[in-house]
Write a structure and sequence with these properties.
The chain has no helices and eleven strands. With 123 residues, it is mainly beta. It is 0% helix and 50% strand. It is globular, with a radius of gyration of 13 Å.
Length: 123
């Protein structure tokens, strides 16, 4: 059974950091692009970042460029999202998702999803 387990969310003060993890089981991440999405209350799910399987190319939403870093450890079958300089507007449930091949811009294009992890940025 294909499954993601996300972890690393929590409550952090503005300017703080968190590292989210997305561990896959039941399949290997080698052939999938992995995206991170987030959804705040009352808002649509939005793409945050993505890492391609073939060459490790990365993509970021403008709102997180320079603050967030996506990476993958294929040996651990895990993708990470390092989030620095967190702002209150980063508060959301964060999801990882997989799609075969290359990164896609739309959430509906992803086939497999984790359960989400809450990130709250507040003083």
């Amino acid at each position: 059974q294909l499954q993601f387990v996300e972890s690393g969310g929590g409550l952090v003060q503005p300017g703080g950091s968190l590292r989210l993890s997305c561990a896959a089981s039941g399949f290997t991440l080698d052939y999938y692009a992995i995206g991170w999405f987030r959804q705040a209350p009352g808002k649509e799910r939005e793409g945050v970042s993505c890492i391609r399987s073939s060459d490790g190319s990365t993509y970021y939403a403008d709102s997180v460029k320079g603050r967030f870093t996506i990476s993958r450890d294929n040996a651990k079958n895990t993708v990470y999202l390092q989030m620095n300089g967190l702002k209150p507007e980063d508060t959301a449930v964060y999801y990882c998702a997989a799609v075969s091949g290359t990164c896609r811009p739309r959430s509906y294009e992803y086939d497999y999803w984790g359960q989400g992890t809450q990130v709250t940025v507040s003083s």
